[in-house]
Write a structure and sequence with these properties.
CATH topology of chain B: Outer Surface Protein A, domain 3
Number of strands of chain A: 10
Shape of chain B: globular
Distance between the termini of chain B: 15 Å
Number of domains of chain B: 1
Largest interface: A-B, 30 and 32 residues
Structural class of chain A: alpha/beta
Shape of chain A: globular
Number of helices of chain A: 15
Low-confidence stretches of chain B: none
Strand order of the largest sheet of chain A: 7-6-5-4-3-2-1-8-9-10
Number of helices of chain B: 3
Largest sheet of chain A: 10 strands, mixed
Mean pLDDT of chain B: 93
Oligomer: heterodimer
Strand content of chain B: 25-35%
């Protein structure tokens, strides 16, 4: 019998988990925002349209949705939609910068069993966090976690995008999560949205990738990754989880105006499968889109097929390749064997890279001459070199426990009775 | 897993059939599991009505030789709280 992951490559009747960005509006202007959020799009789905999507997800038995944005809680109907989903057997996990998590809201959230919350924080200190997420955002996130803890909300998530500047802070992130009774979740920085503009300066250095991998292996269960780091499996020992690109096969994205993309990191017309406002709604897009059919057909390893690690990393992340201008059937830009860097170095010029398909950034943002670092965020931008000077305080364990993903494989995955 | 007791799918568990078997999701623990076989799905779906797990297996056409493997799979589901014992 084939492995479960092989069956998943051909797609499912409905996604396992679906990301739904409810709004492009956001009170922050994070430099690496995947969805280039800031301003609300006037074509945003209405409350009634959102409820119709939830009805459809209930019919398709999509167990839960990951709601994000933008900052989803700034929608005036946000709590109404959350209540509607959770009372219709669609669990909700939402990501927030914490701006609306007052003590009163926290009380209400703690009472709902079908709800999970992710607080975003990209630095364990205000200096590192606010440099990418904007002034005051560290304090906002900490206050939100204090309120959730005081309300008795257990096991919410502290969600961190791993960057060159915060990899030395992994132990500190864990300590913060522990302090508030939260679970740490680490995810990968993608060169998507505004992330494309800062990726060169923010993505972890090759030696940091090894530190991250060892840290994940050493911390085993208790640290979630959302199956985000499967490209690191090529260090040798495969990380558990599905270890495949789930785009259009087990995951997808619904954006604020109802457009359905193959994954949250691929907001670009190349990966646009349809719109939930179309005839047949979301179900028809998921089951019938030509793009998704193509993603579910066997993929060639291309330039990677002769690499002995191809079976574990599967060539890495499609979106990361796309937005760094690399061929989709070649190595990931962060290939731990170094093949991606060779290709990056050989690229012609930046102008040829695909650009994000949507840009809802606040119009006030300006980037530095290099086009990378925002000059209006923070009164005192930190020097990335200085941030890096924090010495890694990580125990290096070459072979310990295994990291656990929130979409973990199960003992039953290997259950294979003979045919009866 | 005691095959001679009565079992039920946990009330917070949702089962979604798929071509390869089924996805099983527990809203309480937020754990996702996979039933990698349609026959196992058939057994699980019969548990709520059957007087014992052994009867559910027999009704689903599971032969004696396969019984230990099914018992092991049901045991894994029980340990992850997907299945709960109920009054017979």
């Amino acid at each position: 019998m084939s492995r479960l992951v092989d069956l998943f490559e051909y797609g499912l009747d409905a996604p396992i988990c679906l990301t739904w960005e409810l709004t492009y509006a956001c009170n922050l202007s994070c430099v690496h925002c995947l969805s280039s959020s800031g301003r609300r799009d006037p074509r945003e789905l209405t409350t009634e349209e959102c409820k119709a999507v939830i009805d459809e997800l209930e019919r398709m038995q999509v167990f839960y949705v990951n709601i994000g944005g933008g900052e989803p809680t700034v929608r005036s109907d946000f709590w109404e939609l959350v209540d509607y989903a959770t009372s219709h057997h669609v669990g909700v996990k939402f990501s927030t910068n914490g701006v609306k998590i007052t003590p009163e809201v926290a009380e209400r959230l703690a009472r709902n069993d079908y709800l999970d919350i992710q607080i975003s924080l990209d630095g364990a200190t205000p200096e590192v966090n606010d440099w990418v997420r904007g002034p005051g955002s560290y304090d906002t996130a900490i206050r939100a976690m204090e309120n959730l803890q005081a309300a008795g909300m257990r096991n919410f998530k502290l969600s961190v995008v791993c960057t060159r500047q915060n990899i030395p802070q992994l132990d500190e992130f864990k300590a913060i999560a522990d302090r508030y009774g939260a679970q740490l979740r680490l995810t990968r920085l993608r060169p998507s949205g505004r992330g494309a503009d800062v990726w060169d300066e923010l993505h972890p250095l090759p030696e940091q990738q090894r530190i991250l991998y060892d840290w994940l292996v050493a911390h085993g269960d208790g640290v979630l990754t959302g199956d985000s780091f499967f490209h690191l499996s090529a260090f040798g020992q495969a990380l558990p989880g599905l270890n495949l690109c789930g785009a259009g096969r087990v995951v997808c994205l619904i954006d604020p105006i109802g457009d359905v993309y193959a994954c949250p990191f691929a907001i670009h017309e190349e990966f646009l499968a349809g719109n939930v406002r179309g005839e047949g709604g979301f179900q028809r897009v998921w089951q019938g889109s030509e793009l998704f059919q193509r993603l579910r057909s066997p993929q060639s390893g291309g330039a990677c097929s002769s690499c002995k690690f191809y079976d574990t990393c599967k060539g890495g992340c499609m979106a990361a390749k796309f937005f760094t201008g690399l061929p989709l059937d070649g190595p990931d830009p962060e290939c731990v064997q170094g093949y991606g860097e060779e290709l990056l170095a050989a690229r012609d010029d930046d102008a040829s890279h695909p650009r994000p398909g949507q840009d809802h950034s606040h119009r006030t943002i300006r980037y530095s001459k290099s086009g990378k670092v925002p000059v209006r965020l923070g009164t005192r931008p930190i020097d990335p070199a200085a941030a890096l000077d924090i010495k890694p305080n990580l125990a290096r364990i070459s072979n310990g426990g295994m990291p656990v993903n929130d979409l973990q494989d199960d003992p039953l995955a290997d259950f294979a009775p003979s045919r009866v | 897993m005691d095959l001679d007791r009565a079992w039920a799918v946990h009330p917070q568990v949702s089962i979604r059939p798929e071509p390869f078997g089924a996805l099983v999701y527990h809203f309480g623990t937020r754990k996702l599991s996979f039933l990698k076989d349609r026959a196992l799905l058939d057994v699980v779906q019969r548990l709520d009505e059957a007087p014992t797990a052994r009867v559910a297996c027999a009704d689903a056409g599971v032969g004696e030789a396969d019984l230990p493997r099914f018992a092991a799979a049901l045991g894994a589901l029980e340990r992850s709280s997907m299945l709960v014992e109920r009054a017979a």
